[in-house]
Amino acid sequence: MTKDELNIAIIQTQLHWEDQENNLRHFDQIILKITIPTDIIVLPEMFSTGFSMNSEKLAEASEGRSIEMMKKWAVEKQCAVCGSLIIKDGGKYYNRFIWVDDSGEIISYNKRHLFALAGEDKFYSSGDKNEIIEWKGWKIMPQVCYDLRFPVWTRRTANQNYDLLIYVSNWPEKRSYAWETLLKARAIENQSFVAAVNRVGTDGNSILYSGNSAVINPLGKEILKFRDFEDGVKTQKISMTELRKVRTQLPFFNDGDRFTIQ
Question: By CB distance 3.0 to 4.6 Å, which of 54, 95, 154, 232 could disulfide with 111?
Answer without folding.
Answer: 95
